[in-house]
Amino acid sequence: MIARAxxxxxxxxxxxxxxADSIITAQASVLSFEHAFQVLALAxxxxxxxxxFLRRPKRGAAPAGH
Length: 66
What we know:
Number of strands: 0
Number of helices: 2
Strand content: under 5%
Distance between the termini: 71 Å
Structural class: mainly alpha
Number of domains: 1
Mean pLDDT: 87
Largest sheet: none
């Protein structure tokens, strides 16, 4: 930062920390979206495994709750 921006040592350190913070925040966002995607994918997979075990309603039967 000192050579590129011509900043003083303390300013350069603050700029470097700010740059590292933005990189870490971006990576944390990506990892959180990945984790959420994996959780939802497992939930959907679990639901798909249960589908063959569902029974069809008999013909002429009233819908549940009515």
